[in-house]
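Hi U.,

Before I forget, here's the chain from the pilot set. I'm dumping it here mostly so it's searchable later in email.
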Amino acid sequence: MNLIYIHGLDSDANSTKGILLESYCQKNHSDIKVYRPDLNQSPEQVFSYLTDLVTELKKDNKTVLIGSSLGGYFSTLVSNHTGCPALLLNPSTQPHITLQRFYNTSISNRDSSDGLPNNKVLHTTAGGWNITPSDLQWFADHQLLAVNYPDKVAVLLKKGDELLNSELSKAYYQSQGASVAVQAGGDHRFSDFGEQLPKVIDMLQQLL
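Structure:
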């Protein structure tokens, strides 16, 4: 089985959860290959890359996506287009809204409010992605309006998520027919991810 770990906004290929996942599989599931791509580029490039990667990997072996935060959004989008199963961790469902904070901050720092050029850098993530108004428009043009393969999508949420509204994610994915599990407490980063890896692998295998 192939696992593609899709990191969140301020992360990269060496994210804590991605490394934990790969190390756990190397020790306990030698038949599972973990891929940890660095996705600090425009959303159009990320979507294209992931779609191509899934299409290629599915030729030889069963493939599953596991996405955290903004990676959960991309996982849903890619799953919709490829039919690839996906496990989502505290997924972002409305990046076209939540990421507007970078645009609004840049506008407030200007003398006028006549907008910003499409290539203006609004924010640079920890991983080096320069977010522009064009990126925000891409998210607006690619909203999650449906989950095309709800039987292939599972969601794991923390009630204590301090960055994203877990109730919003719960309501959306349940309305689409996807499997949703909500855990008390916790945080956005899923700090206890290492302890939950046996459960995570079991959930991934059930999606196949």
